[in-house]
Structures are given as structure tokens and as C-alpha cells.
């Protein structure tokens, strides 16, 4: 762990700086079998390693955030996790923030172990942030929230996801009339209270949800980052962000995966694709902020 005598810079501050200097964009590292095939790679550890190394080489010095999806590495066992460990270390060394997309959620000592796996600086998979699921109760996330605060890392909590099945849980109403998603966002707002320039506790909110956000009674102003999957291949565009996120649009971290990764294995094409999306998002956000 980080020595107590040293206070690490909070993730929210580091993320804001990265977004301001590199552009507000997160690119996923999703080496699923069909994408490996599109790149002309074999669906094995060798193909996984070539794919991952190419993405990191192309983008880690350019984008604000890289988001490896752990499942696509775990399916190859220990050798796949070794590829992931190297990717995380190489990406962070090149200046990208690494968001581990693991969607962990459990209780007690098990949640603490998950938190240690990704948020303890001594861990092989130490990342700048991790995705977590609150659906065993928001309080079950406390070990991850506390370790994130101590280590200067962040968490992104599933709140309003873009998959259609999510609504049956996330839009469900509690006894007080508030939705489950709205309650998650309220908890995050409390975690981020007083943080500047931005809190370290984020929410995952689909960029494709549009008007359905209103049905969930969602107030997205949580003083923290909003990871927004759905840009590109899933149909949302940068121009949609102000309409979906309103006054919170400056805190949005759009996630793009296939729309950038399909440019590989050509490194120049990967870089050009990421730059184009980052420019489109920056322009949309700046126009929305200027318009008030």
C-alpha cells in the first residue's frame, strides 16, 4: 500500500487533467474472438498478446483512459492474465489512466479481496480505477470505496447501463418512490461532496439511453465522472452527449471500443480513429458549455 506519510493525488484530479490535456475519451481493449479474427489473429494467447500490445503501443501515449475488459483475458487463464498485467503496466507507464473493467461486486472480505486485486498499489493488476456492481447493496462496496480513497484510485459504479435488461433492476422503485439507479447516484454524490476539481467516484451511464434517463428519475450531477458506453458501434454519437447528460456533460468520459479497434492492426489507423472521436467529443462538450 501507499505509505501513510504520502497522500496520493486523487483519481478525480488526475482524470480531469488527462481529459483536459488528452481529450475526454476512454478506449476499450476488448480482444474478443471476432475482433481477433478481423485483425487476422488467432484466438489464442499469441493472438491476444499481439492485439493487446498493438492497442497499447498505439494509444497509451495519446488517449486519457484505456479500459481493458478483464473477461477477455481471464478466458485464457494465467497466461491471459499475464498479458493483462503487462498491458496495465505499459499503459500506465506511457501516461494513460487504466480503468479495469471487471464489474466486481460481493460482500465483506471477498469484496475487500477484489478491491485489493485492482486498487492496491502492490498488486500485479494495480489500475487507476475499476468498475464495480452495487446490486448486493451499495454498502457492500465500502471496501473498494475506502481503498480507492487511500490509494488515490477510483471506482465506477454501474448505475444506468445501456443493456436493455438493466432497466428491470435499475428503474425499479424503492419504498420511498425513488428508483434504484437514482439511489446509487445519490450515494455517489455524497461520496464526491466537496471534491475538486472532480470526485473520484464515478457512475456508468449509457450514452444510448436518451429519454429513458428521465424515467429513472436520474440526477447525473454527482460531482464525479460519468463513464458513457455506447458511442460508435452501439449507435450514439458525440453530438448526443449534451442531450443525454445535460449540465453534467463536462464530466462525461465517453467509451469507444469497436469503432476505434476496427482500425487495427494498423497503428496509424488506430491513432487516427481515437483522435477523431476525442475531437468530436471535445467539440460537442465545449459547444454545450458555451451555450450554457
Overall description:
With 292 residues, this protein is of the alpha/beta class. It contains 13 helices and eight strands. The chain has one domain (11-285): Aldolase class I (TIM Barrel). It has helices at 11-22, 33-38, 45-59, 71-74, 77-93, 108-119, 142-151, 167-170, 180-191, 212-215, 241-245, 258-261, 267-291; strands at 26-29, 65-68, 97-104, 129-132, 154-160, 201-205, 226-229, 252-256. Strands 1-2-3-4-5-6-7-8 form an eight-stranded parallel beta barrel, surrounded by seven helices. It is globular. The mean pLDDT is 93.
Quick one: overall form?
Answer: globular
Q: State the helicity in percent bands.
A: 40-55%
Give the overall average pLDDT. Answer: 93
CATH topology: TIM Barrel
| Secondary-structure-derived class | alpha/beta
CATH architecture: Alpha-Beta Barrel
Encode the helix/strand succession as letters. HEHHEHHEHEHEHHEHEHEHH
Overall tally of structural domains? 1
- Helix count equals 13
Give a concise summary.
It is an enzyme of class 4 (lyase). The protein has 292 residues and is of the alpha/beta class.
Write the layout of secondary structure elements.
Elements: H1 11-22, E1 26-29, H2 33-38, H3 45-59, E2 65-68, H4 71-74, H5 77-93, E3 97-104, H6 108-119, E4 129-132, H7 142-151, E5 154-160, H8 167-170, H9 180-191, E6 201-205, H10 212-215, E7 226-229, H11 241-245, E8 252-256, H12 258-261, H13 267-291
Parallel strand pairs: 1-2, 1-8, 2-3, 3-4, 4-5, 5-6, 6-7, 7-8
Amino acid at each position: 500500500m501507499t505509505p501513510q506519510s504520502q497522500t496520493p493525488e486523487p483519481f478525480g484530479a488526475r482524470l480531469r487533467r488527462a481529459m483536459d490535456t488528452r481529450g475526454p475519451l476512454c478506449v476499450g481493449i476488448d480482444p474478443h474472438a471476432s475482433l481477433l479474427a478481423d485483425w487476422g489473429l488467432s484466438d489464442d494467447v499469441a493472438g491476444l498478446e499481439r492485439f493487446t500490445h498493438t492497442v497499447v503501443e498505439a494509444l497509451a501515449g495519446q488517449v486519457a483512459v484505456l479500459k481493458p475488459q478483464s473477461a477477455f483475458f481471464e478466458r485464457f487463464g494465467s497466461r491471459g492474465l499475464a498479458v493483462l498485467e503487462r498491458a496495465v503496466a505499459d499503459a500506465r507507464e506511457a501516461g494513460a489512466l487504466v480503468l479495469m473493467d471487471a464489474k466486481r461486486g460481493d460482500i465483506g472480505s471477498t469484496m475487500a479481496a477484489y478491491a485489493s486485486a485492482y486498487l492496491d498499489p502492490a498488486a500485479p493488476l494495480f489500475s487507476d480505477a475499476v468498475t464495480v456492481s452495487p446490486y448486493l447493496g451499495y454498502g457492500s462496496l465500502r471496501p473498494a470505496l475506502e481503498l480507492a480513497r487511500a490509494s488515490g484510485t477510483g471506482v465506477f459504479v454501474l448505475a444506468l447501463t445501456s443493456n436493455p435488461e438493466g432497466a428491470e433492476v435499475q428503474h425499479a422503485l424503492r419504498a420511498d418512490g425513488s428508483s434504484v439507479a437514482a439511489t446509487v447516484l445519490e450515494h455517489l454524490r455524497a461520496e464526491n461532496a466537496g471534491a475538486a476539481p472532480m470526485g473520484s467516484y464515478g457512475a456508468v451511464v449509457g450514452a444510448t439511453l436518451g429519454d429513458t434517463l428521465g424515467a429513472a428519475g436520474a440526477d447525473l450531477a454527482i460531482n464525479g465522472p460519468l463513464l458513457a458506453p455506447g458511442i460508435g458501434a452501439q449507435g450514439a454519437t458525440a453530438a448526443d452527449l449534451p442531450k443525454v447528460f445535460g449540465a453534467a456533460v463536462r464530466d462525461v468520459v465517453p467509451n469507444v471500443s469497436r469503432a476505434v479497434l476496427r482500425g487495427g492492426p494498423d497503428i496509424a489507423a488506430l491513432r487516427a480513429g481515437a483522435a477523431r472521436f476525442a475531437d468530436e467529443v471535445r467539440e460537442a462538450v465545449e459547444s454545450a458549455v458555451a451555450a450554457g
